[in-house]
Amino acid sequence: MNSGFGSPALDAASRLMTPFMLMFGAYVVVYGHDSPGGGFQGGVIIAACLILVRLVRGRAAGWVMPPEVAVVLLCTGAGIFAGVGLLGPIFGGHFLDYSALPLPLAPAEVRAAGSLAVEIGVALAVTGVLELIFDVLVEARDDA
Amino acid sequence: MTAAFDPLAIAFLGLMIVCAIAALSVRDLMTAVVVFGAFSFFSATYFAILGAVDVAFTEAAVGAAITAVFFVTAIFRTDRGAD
Amino acid sequence: MARLAVIPLLALGAVLAAAASGLPRIGDPESPAATHASPRYIARGHEETGATNLVTGVLADYRAYDTLGETTVICAAGLACWLILGGRSRGAGS
User: Fold this and answer.
1) CA dihedral in degrees (A85, C82, A127, A3; nearest 10)?
2) How much of chain C, in percent, has pLDDT values that exceed 70?
């Protein structure tokens, strides 16, 4: 599957869809507070977009994500989540208590901002994991 | 309360059962993956009817898209028959 | 042998059906799950977390510890897949 499908129709369709899928994924992550969605769903949509490009174009795609980058991405996501959680005890609250963050906002908005940071972390982690699993499945050793 | 006895909900539950049995009994694994994707879509619609839009969203994204892609990739690496 | 497996399967199905008849109805406001924590979240959730979508408010704020564990499990699963399947650049032969 290193070569991809390569049909012109698939290529054109994926080129047309990719920016909208990425945009929709980011929208789902950021607007998870006000509409259905959240970090997990948005991360899955972004990963589906990357996998689509990878399926259609194969290794020729400009942005193939090597597994090392995917691992860094997923660890960054989990680290953002745990780091935002650890900011609570640092500023005198409980673990994962976003209301302790010293932001110049209304209390509910501070908690919303903390939730948003956490959702972005979850989205990064989910994107990294799905991309990593797909890459590992595609690139598994043939001689094994 | 009434959502569980909605005829639409019962219809989608029946379609889910049909798809599940079909996915189990089909010999070709690729067909089974496609039928399983249909099962995921029906269950997502069922969740949406019950009012759990977030769960329906997750089911449609993960169950229908990502799982199918992973299954197809795994089938390409192995044999296609069910035995 | 495969036909014999139907018998315990049907027995299990009967047990599950009997157990399911004791569950509260879907959307029942009197069910135990809907009478303890839910009213508090529904009443104060929007003003406390600023989330219009209460599901995200509960997942990312009230139950953030749960979500942290979930993310950890996902990361562990991805890393395990990588370590088991993706050894192409390591080892002696390659």
Assistant:
1) 170
2) 91
**Region label for A58, one of left (φ > 0), alpha (ψ between -120 and 50) or beta (otherwise):** left
Q: What are phi and psi of C20, to 5 degrees?
A: -70, -25
Q: Which chains touch C (3 or more CB pairs under 8 A)?
A: A, B
This prediction's pTM:
0.86
Range of the domain at A13: 8-138
For chain C, the structural domain boundaries read 37-85
Which pLDDT score is estimated for C91? Answer: 47
Residues ≥6 apart with Cβ < 8 Å to A119 = A29, A30, A32, A38, A39, A42, C56, C60
Residue whose tokens read 């996998």? A51
Q: Round to whole Å and give the CA distance between B3 and B1.
A: 5
Q: How many domains does chain A have?
A: 1
Helix (H, G, I), strand (E, B) or coil at C10: helix
Above pLDDT 90, what percent of chain C? 30
pLDDT of amino acid B3: 57
Say which residues have a Cβ less than 8 Å from residue C49's Cβ, sequence separation at least 6. A108, A111, A112, A115, C57, C60, C61, C62
Total domain count, chain B: 1
- Comparing CB atoms, the residue among C53, C59, C75 nearest residue A74 is C75
8 Å CB contact of B4 and C27 = yes
- Tell whether C74 is within 8 A of chain A (Cβ): yes
- Residue reference for tokens 């945009």: A23
What pLDDT score was predicted for residue C15? 96
Q: Is the pLDDT of residue B17 over 70?
A: yes
Q: Residue A143 — pLDDT band, cuts 50, 70, 90?
A: very low
ipTM: 0.83
User: Is A1 inside any structural domain?
Assistant: no
Name the nearest CA neighbour of A123 among A57, A50, A58, A61. Answer: A50
Task: Quote the percentage of chain A above a pLDDT of 70.
Answer: 91
**Structural domain contains residue A143:** no
